[in-house]
Amino acid sequence: MSDAVLSVRNVSKAFGAVQALNNISFDVLPGQVVALAGDNGAGKSTIIKIISGVFRHDEGEVLFDGRPIRFSTPQEARESGIETIYQDLALADNLSIGENIFLGREPKRRLFGVLPVLDRARMAAAAQTTMASLDFHVTRLDAPVAAFSGGQRQAIAIGRALHWNARLVIMDEPTAALGVPEQRRVLALIQSLRAQGKGVVFISHNLRDIFEVADAIVVFRRGENAGARKPSETTHDEIVRLMVGA
Amino acid sequence: MAGTSPAMTTAAATSIFWGIMVETVRGPSLLLRIAELRAWLFLIVLVAFFEVWLRLAYGTSFVFSAYNIQAITVFAAVPLVLGLGQTFVIISSGIDLSLGFVMGLSSVIAAHMANWGAEIGMAMPIAALFGILSGVAIAVIPGLVNGWLIAFLDVPPFIGTLGMFGVSRGAAYLFAGGMTVAISNDWYSAIGNNRIAGAPVLVLLAAFACLVLHYVLSQTRFGQHTYAMGASKTAARRAGINVRALTLKIYTLSAVMGGFAGALYTGRFSAGAPQAGEALLLDSIAAVVIGGASLFGGSGTISGTIAGALVIAVIQYGLVLINVEPFWQFIAVGAVIIVSVLVDQTQRRLTGGRKVE
Questions:
Q1: B82 pLDDT exceeds 80?
Q2: What's the CA gap between B251 and B286, in Å, rounded?
Q3: For an interface test with A, which of B4, B21, B217 has the most A Cβ atoms less than 10 Å from its Cβ?
Q4: What is the mean pLDDT of chain B?
Q5: Do A90 and B354 touch (CB under 8 A)?
Q6: Which residues of A touch B294 (CB under 8 A)?
Q7: Residue A51, exposed/middle/buried by CB under 10 A (0-12, 13-18, 19+)?
Q8: Do B215 and A115 make contact, defined as CB atoms within 8 angstroms?
Q9: If pLDDT is split at 50, 70 and 90, which confidence band does B153 have?
Q10: Based on C-alpha coordinates, what's the Rg of chain B?
């Protein structure tokens, strides 16, 4: 398992007297989609917040590309190649796709060789290329993101992760706020990330989604590993039993 | 999809999905463009209205008169300078109510310091410059306090800047001893009253401020992040933008523009006055809103604010020319503000933008 993008080993985390995570372990390989399943409060969100730099773990190790990580800010995690995509999105509605992809890292050029200005042409070109790699061919590159649908906006958030060459993409309930056709589109995007060799950690309450895209399912119960299964070797019923501990 | 190789599935599935999705982008592009320009269109309509009225009633021209143009632009210059800073604040989804009295405070300080500079033996032009710079510098204090209250103590902008409205007001009157502070510095007064090649210096300075702030808003990361923050603080934060530092900078910029407006006022009236900006605060907000910015944040341009300030000046000046009682100005400007917001809401609906509830 030394070629894993992400390797979580015996990680524990307590908030005061509450043991949120107890001895959690799992691996994510390049081109692998790992779904985290579990009831509310089972510790799914805590572990992804540790991976994405929001929290620090108390015990155990998190290895990213074989190196132990302990980020102090989400920004640090992002800079080392871990992008997190939130269910409530993280896009500025009034900016274009390119401006969103580059938000916080805008490229500059010099007007007449002196005056530094934002390089909007470069942002638009990068937006087009990146979105095309997701088979999303944008014609209106200057349109604000607000003009796009929920699923398209998820695609833009994923596009941002791709553009910055993330090797691990964490998705927290990426389909929760979407209608059924849009959910299908986002699942297709996850497959596209897998095809590009990214590691994907995917949290969902929807077992159908999990069975459709995941290569491995890690079940959490009350902060502990309740089991890991391959979708092809298990059933909905078994996963639910593991989640509730019956 | 299970069973086939991931790569194939992906390509097929996504192209089917996105193929149709490209066409679903709502809102014609043309409508957006017109919306951006609507303050300018409105200005043209307004000018045409006064032009026709004056020709029919008095046989004179409204717009083809150098005197009228000078008067209107001088009239618009100071509220416009206030409005420039306010534009950044409103785009960031805040509001700066302290601006009017920050301007008054700066006007008083600029007058005092120009006088004091001359007393200690500075040459007149140096003393004038010293006064102006002091006036601008003092504004940094209320600006930083506003920013600190809003960014670090989570005070709502409306309340924080209302507090500084009171503090600046009191400080301005205290420094002025409850009166106006006259200056006797021809160089300083020239800034408010002289012309260069027919153009009033005041207007040239305001135009220069417009150019600089247009550049800052549209071509720098600071400007870009101001827009992002106005749309969603969370999104800005998640993109790694230091929203607190940004807020501090925005309110400081706004106050500095208030300070500049105050220093200009002192030149124009050869006196510093605590109440210099009292009536101009609402004009500055009105200029930004008429210019197409949303009070909910995330939209607005310097060009729009320029048009907004000119609209207000044209209404006020035009109504005087056609002999309407001056009190109607307030009603007219008020009605224009309300109509602008209604048009903004409608346009948002039509272009599929975020409808703020």
A1: yes
A2: 18
A3: B21
A4: 84
A5: no
A6: none
A7: buried
A8: yes
A9: very high
A10: 23
Locate tokens 């779904």: which residue?
A35
CB contact under 8 A, B352 and A146: yes
Sequence-separated (6 or more) residues with CB below 8 Å from residue B343: B38
- pLDDT over threshold 50, residue B186: yes
Query: Using an 8 Å Cβ cutoff, are A187 and A155 in contact?
Result: no
Question: Which chain B residues are closer than 8 Å to A143 by Cβ?
Answer: 25, 27, 29
Task: Flag the least confident range among B60-64, B155-159, B279-283.
Answer: B60-64
**pLDDT surpasses 70 at B36:** no
CB distance A92–B6 less than 8 Å?
Answer: no
Max distance between CA atoms of chain A, in angstroms, equals: 70
Comparison of pLDDT for A51 and B63, the residue scoring more: A51
Q: Mind listing the pLDDT tens digit for each residue in A29-82?
A: 888 999 988 888 788 888 888 888 888 888 888 888 888 888 888 888 888 888
Give residue B6's pLDDT.
41
d(CA B288, CA B96): 12
Angle between the N-to-C axes of helices B201-219 and B66-91, in degrees from 0 to 180, rounded to the nearest 10: 30
Cβ–Cβ gap B21/A151 under 8 Å: yes
Q: Which residue of B has its CA nearest to A53?
A: B238
CA-to-CA distance for A195 and B281, rounded, in angstroms?
57
Between β-strands A59-64 and A33-38, what pairing exists: parallel, antiparallel or unpaired? unpaired
Interior CA angle at A168 toward A163 and A173, to 5°? 95
How many other C-beta atoms can be found within 10 angstroms of the C-beta atom of residue A142?
12
What would the pLDDT profile of B121-140 be if each residue is shown by its tens digit? Answer: 888 888 889 999 999 999 99
Separation between Cα atoms, residue A3 and residue A117, nearest integer Å? 42
CA dist., res. A57 & res. A242, Å (int): 24
Q: How many C-beta neighbours within 10 Å does residue B137 have?
A: 16
Read off the DSSP letter of residue A244.
Answer: H
- At residue B32 the predicted structure's pLDDT band, cuts being 50, 70 and 90, is low
Task: Give the one of A93, A106, A134 whose C-beta lies nearest to B298's C-beta.
Answer: A93
Query: Pick from A56, A52, A57: which is nearest to A24 by CA?
Result: A57
Instruction: Please report, as a single letter, which amino acid is at residue A40.
Output: N
Closest CA to A197 of A233, A169, A177: A169
Copy the structure tokens of residue B13.
């599935």
- Please report the domains of chain B, with CATH numbers, ordered by start residue: 37-350 (1.10.3470)
What is d(CA B292, CA B286) in angstroms, rounded to the nearest whole number?
10
What's the pTM? 0.84
Tell whether ipTM is more than 0.90. Answer: no
